[in-house]
Amino acid sequence: MNPVTTAHIVGSNDRQFWSATRRRLVPVTEQARLADMLHVMQLDTHHGEPENLSTMLPVWCVRKDAALFHEGSPTDTLYVVRSGSLKCVKSSEDGYHQVLSFVGPGEVLGFESLHRGKHRTSAIALEVSTVFAIPVQSLGSLRQQSPLFDEALQNAISRQLDSAGDMAELMAAVAADARLARFLIWLSARMAAAGQSAHRLRLRMCRRDIASLLGVAHETVSRSFTNLADEGLVQVLNRDVDILDAEGLRLRARCTRGVADDGAAPICVPQAKVAPPRVPAKPRASTARLNWFPNVEASESATA
Amino acid sequence: MNPVTTAHIVGSNDRQFWSATRRRLVPVTEQARLADMLHVMQLDTHHGEPENLSTMLPVWCVRKDAALFHEGSPTDTLYVVRSGSLKCVKSSEDGYHQVLSFVGPGEVLGFESLHRGKHRTSAIALEVSTVFAIPVQSLGSLRQQSPLFDEALQNAISRQLDSAGDMAELMAAVAADARLARFLIWLSARMAAAGQSAHRLRLRMCRRDIASLLGVAHETVSRSFTNLADEGLVQVLNRDVDILDAEGLRLRARCTRGVADDGAAPICVPQAKVAPPRVPAKPRASTARLNWFPNVEASESATA
DNA sequence: CGATCGTTTGACGGTGCTCAATCACCGTGG
DNA sequence: CCACGGTGATTGAGCACCGTCAAACGATCG
Q: Mean pLDDT by 10-residue block, N- to C-terminus, for chain A (304 residues)?
């Protein structure tokens, strides 16, 4: 139980070490076929010749609150989440942890660190999770041997970049309620994409992690939860969240910043299916708050 | 050819149409060798056999404020910035523009939209810029023919994912001054990486775009600029920014949110070179502000 | 059953958002 | 040449949301 002897090589990539000393297991349990991974990555393996899909891949199991890898450790392995969920955390120098993203099944971990060779984030499991392991050494040959994997990887990375934009949108919202609403919508969409229920969510992360991702205080997250609940948009019982009024939640999620008074920049694509002019927030809260953002109303009245 | 006949397919990928009708030129001017692009992408083409590096690629020129592509248009081309800079903008339904990123030479545009086939952002040139064009059709064959390009692309995407994390850190800062400081540091690092001066910056974007990226009001950006200038950290004249005290700026950029009071999560890598305990912000501003974030002091005193 | 952590709620103070006016800069046209 | 409208940038005033501190409640686990 004494990790004292090897304490000086913290930050090494020896996961066996971590699993042995810290009990935060990252042991190999079984292997899986490449086809299984492609299935998780939402690639239909029905075109082309499935020649290499029987290649075996190691699978790791990560216990709750355990780290799949640590910030600063060398990136010698890429991971694809098979089950469960993790959070990517960056501890910024002075010791504060910033949650960068939550990842679920089918998502790739570690790709952002490839060009440096060192992980820039820590990946902490929010629950007991399993991941496929892909040594970076064999990454090239694997892509060459299996075009399907190559395509799946490209799509996964594309999705990841895309969702990074969503994250920016998340934090760009002004009001804390809107941020939380966007987060719930984002989570709902992810659950739906994974085949789960879109309105019955079970949060795997604590309030503080949500707060960190959203860029607010964790008390504010609590308050925003009760706000949304008071408005009848959601029903929240601890970490179980029911989305009662998805459309209303989507309404609350609007209110971005940065007026598009536009002027001469014709960068608007011909979008014909935008929502008709409607009030950006329904003032039916008990305390009758949230009536700011006059710019929104101003702009909308201008268009009307 | 008269582009009138194709006017009904606005949102089509016909850039010639746009260049002809809107006068916001995106015309092809010349071609370039693949080796040139790899050079911009910071890949040393000195190992392996440079067999395919003479492949010619089309180069487009984008005028200032012109769109390289629009949100919603089909993604049939990938772009690599050769010179200049652009901003990626997502107009979120109600017409508000959210700046997601600023991109410069060597960076890839459009990869995040590959998996959907439609661009999720608009790319607007901040100045006269040139880009290499890579048809997605020939993307696979090009990667297969040129392993060097494959490697360069992978590295570029990895960098892009990495900087997405930096963006999240940008917006995660609490105080507006800290956000702006982080932005300036980020920009300085980018300029330095591009071989430019690290302390003499010329902002290509307007205050409003910075504000949008940082998630604050554009007036706040102005105020933060004067704040940093009053502290002697920077000297700002319109869009010309001189970084006078990089270390002080880095100090102002600290102050993250989300306390790492930690408890039982040993996810901290052994960082031996953190700054010694010191006051998080020097109180030498004229108005003597910015003395909040007691959590920082609390944590620091705890470690002492 | 008790200890620890997560969650919630309250109160207070401050920062940043909104509105508004002013100035600087630029291209156009008189 | 200067007047003029337009955009961008700066500054000020007022207000309220949110961060901090504090305490209480609840849940989970040994």
A: 31 37 54 86 70 81 92 95 94 82 95 95 94 94 90 95 90 88 94 88 95 94 95 92 93 63 30 30 32 31 30
For A274, other C-beta atoms within 10 Å of its C-beta total 12
The encoded tokens of residue A140 equal 């090239």
**Which residues numbered 147-186 in chain B sit less than 7 A from strand D, measured from CB?**
174
Give the span between the Cα atoms of B153 and B149, in whole angstroms: 6
Cβ of A218 near strand C (under 7 Å)? The reply is: yes
Confirm whether any atom of chain D, the nucleic acid strand, is less than 7 Å from CB of B257.
yes
**3-class SS of residue B44:** coil
Query: Considering just the CA atoms, what is the radius of gyration of chain B in Å?
Result: 22
Write down the residue that tokens 């490697």 correspond to.
B151
Q: A194 is written with which tokens?
A: 């994974």
CB proximity A203–strand D (7 Å threshold): no
Burial class (CB in 10 A: 0-12, 13-18, 19+), B116: middle
B215 touches strand C (CB under 7 A): yes
Q: Is A285 within 8 Å of chain B by CB? A: no
CB B90 within 8 Å of CB B120 = yes
pTM: 0.78
Alpha carbon B153 to chain centroid, angstroms: 17
Tell me what pLDDT residue B287 has: 30
Nearest CB partner across the interface for A212, out of B113, B164, B257: B257
Nucleotides of C under 7 A from a protein CB: 4-11, 14-20, 25
Is B125 exposed, middle or buried, given 0-12, 13-18 or 19+ CB atoms closer than 10 A?
buried
CA A298 to chain centre: 34
Residues of A in Cβ contact (< 8 Å) with B294: none
